[in-house]
Model the fold of this input.
Amino acid sequence: MKILVVDDSKAMRMIVIRTLRQAGFGHHTLEEAANGVEALKAIEAVPPDLVLSDWNMPDMSGIELLRALRGRGSTIKFGFVTSEGSEEMRTRAIESGASFLIAKPFTVESFQKVLSNVIEARG
Amino acid sequence: MQIPESAIIRVTEEVWSSTLGLSLTPGARGTTATDPALVGRILISGAWRGAVTLRSAEPLAQRAAAILNDVPAADATLEMVKDTLGELTNIIAGNLKGLMPGLTQLSLPAVARGDERAALAAFETEETKLLGQAALACDGQPLQVQVWQWA
Done:
């Protein structure tokens, strides 16, 4: 299974990937993109099974990426990992086709709890 | 409206602990991170307009960047340090945003060091009001979080 991590902060991409490994999802193929535009290109080239995206990014935000994917008929599983964790943002995310929203700061346990319903964990 | 110091401390401690695995202690009131220091800023727009700033002593910001990028502190580049401080500011602002009324959204982070800080300090004018602040320290290195509202 392939997971694409999208965030304009390299440090945050590293934390997300580290947390995925610590949460038991390290056996999946983990790839990175720095914004929505880069992510869209990567998805068109080789579609991942899950996209974990930040919300606020330059060039193309996470919600714009999600809407672009759904507008093209893509059914790829999509979740937000963002500091925009209000109920309003959760509602916008779900209404736009996201499966979940993990608020920053997150923990290994929060990744396990949310992602175990979406992808297979090991260890 | 005022933002309680206790709320700013709670959010900042949680972000520091969860993201960096580091503990914070109360800083002396009125103290700020003196040079060399960096400042991160997130603007908040929508039903409520203001900003959240995070000022950190440079050695502390460098230590945070080293932790997140998994490199020795001496190998943390300025780009890594700015990226890290921007992300920490973003997470703190995102959590403090819940205390503001109405629908709001965060800007992308801006981070400045040394002389560049003048550009970020532009909002510290008569047109803005300081709603709350907290001074903290991490192993003796100071950091300060401030919440501003456009008048």
